[in-house]
Amino acid sequence: MARPTFSCLSEADKDFIHAQTVRILTEVGVAYNTRTLTSVLQENGAIVDAERLTAKLPWDLVERCLSTVPATVLLAGRDPAYDCVVGGPDGMLYTSDGAATYMLDDLTGERHEGTRADLAQMTRLYDAVPEIDFVWATITPGDVDARAGNLEMARITYDNCRKHLQDEVRHPDQAPVFVELLEAVAGASLQERPIWSATNCTIAPLQHDAEMTEAHILMARAGCPIFVLPMPQMGTTGPMSVLGTSILNMAELLSAVVLFQLAAPGCGMVSAVGSAVAEMRSGLYLSAAPEDALINVLCIEMSKRYGLLTQGSAVSCDAKACNHQAGAEGMLTGLAVALAGADVMLAFGLMDGAQTASLAKTVLDADTVNAIERFLREEPVDEARALVDDIVEVGIGGHFLARRSTRQATRAGELWQPKLWQRGPFEQYAGTPLVQEAWERAHELIEQNDVPPLPDDVRRHCDRLIADYLAQQG
Question: What domains does the chain contain, in order, with CATH numbers?
Answer without folding.
Answer: 11-57 (no CATH), 66-376 (3.20.20.480)
